[in-house]
């Protein structure tokens, strides 16, 4: 496993090539689904550039104090920016502080790093405030942004970055990585690879925190109840969960995975089930919907995802979603 990451070997080789060929870009944008490993790749890249033990190999040792401080985001020349607690957005003041810090001389590394995590959550004013630094970066600065998609950012941001697009990791690679790097038993590793959809960070989080799997089970059951419920029940549920934005994100991710499984089954795709522990429920829904209904349901979910990414009203977005979902009987 290159750089001790699960998957994304091509991206590691690309970044190592930039290091070894002395062709580093001043700004990188790492995109991909939530939990696929964007932040981990960014951190490994910074470790490869700062590790005193790695020399010119482009391979960080991952055990020295420098690598450990970078991993904890506590390295003095690394300035991480993300959504702060009790906030929904990265704010312009955070970017202004970052720009000030990057303008100072490095302490240890010979360069400074700005790590902007989940930058799709940056306000338009925050994104605009970064433009001048992207256009005229100090020579000793590397900016690394992560985002679910480049389309969530201003074109003027993405055009100034080298984009690295990460996809979900093949299930066998995910399972093997969980076993080799994290000593997870084969049967559990295979299960986690499936239910995470080939997203290593999510798989590891599920292994470390069983509550995540319990929440997934509850969300699956709640979805079955909603599909069987009338509009009054659906509106009441939308009102209830809209008070918890974190649950809404988990809800959408879980429910989308259900309908993706249904779509693959209805089209007789060879893609394996993600929700392998809920095959009976998926087959039950599949017997009551056609291909068009399944496809339209996925469109509704993706539209809800997009609206929430644009900070739309949670309650109204969920109500619109609930109204469009089909009605399914509960009898198996």
Structure overview:
The chain has 332 residues and is α/β, with parallel strands linked by helices. It has 3 domains: 2-165, Rossmann fold, CATH 3.40.50.300; 171-208; 210-324. Helix content is 54%, strand content 8%. The protein has 15 helices and 5 strands. The chain has helices spanning 9-20, 38-50, 65-71, 92-102, 124-135, 155-158, 171-182, 186-195, 200-208, 210-228, 231-241, 245-266, 279-286, 291-309, 314-324, and strands spanning 27-31, 78-81, 112-116, 141-147, 162-165. The protein has a 5-stranded parallel sheet with strand order 2-3-4-1-5, with helices on both faces. α5 links the parallel β3 and β4. α12 (245-266) packs across α13 (279-286). The longest helix is centred in the last third of the chain and has 22 residues, at 245-266. The mean pLDDT is 92.
CATH uppermost class of the largest domain: Alpha Beta
Report the total helices. Answer: 15
Listing every helix as H and every strand as E from the N terminus to the C terminus, the arrangement reads HEHHEHEHEHEHHHHHHHHH
- Characterize the main sheet: 5 strands, parallel
- CATH architecture call of the largest domain: 3-Layer(aba) Sandwich
